[in-house]
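Expect sequence, tokenised fold; for instance:
***
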Amino acid sequence: MKIALLFSKQRADTWGIYVENALRKTKHEVYHFQPSDLSSLRNDFDLYFKIDDGNYNYDFPLHLKPKIYYVSDVHLKHACKKIIRQARNYDIIFCALKEGVGKFQRLGIKSYWINAACDPQIHKKLTLPKIYDIGFVGTSGAIPRQFYLQALREKYPKSYIDLAPHTKMGEIYSQSKIGFSYPIKENCFTMRSCEILSCGTFLLMKNIKDATDDTLEQLGFQDKKHLRIFHTPKEMFDIIDYYLKNGAERENIAQEGYLLIRKHHTYDDRVQEMLEIVRRELTVF
């Protein structure tokens, strides 16, 4: 199958690159197009595949079919409106956030949940000393996450809580005793959670979902076996203090999470899931 892949590579850490790398491991022919290349795109591909890169000012021409779209930012109000406007022109929407699937389906748009994953070539487990108490790579975001991160900086000064090149992510998380994840909204198992586990690091994650949500269970993860979940600031500090003192127990949980993420939740796995749905629903190969 001949696939036209569309997303911007203006940012070297865009998740589209992870998907592209996984696609290139398959038997299919993959051709990447930048937004500026759209004028040269011909109608001779078997599949047109767009990946959400946060820029909604460009799109495949309407007449090109069949089209699929892998989206991530449906938890952001303004981005979601733009994504939905484009999604109406696609045959299938793959959504990294479970809640997003319902938003599309209510509009009559065929959609499937394909959660974020890890790229073992980038998110590597390295044999390095654990010099950081807490590891968090990314922006502080909005309230309340920025308050949590500031509290962690103040109580655990021997931590890495900051931006970093994506090529340094494996090094930073591998040197962290605890990797911290606080989703901005909705989705409880984010790219950051996957990246931390893939580096072999103990994951402490805020679960902002209600008690009926089964996202973790559907992905095969269990609290206290593969990771730890907290709900309140006190619980967060209690868990951190306990596992900083109990390193062997912490590393056992980290190893269980690492084994599971590497076995079932790489972008190779996600690409295979999407291609199987495409084969079944669109019969293009």
The chain has two domains: 2-117+266-282, 132-264.
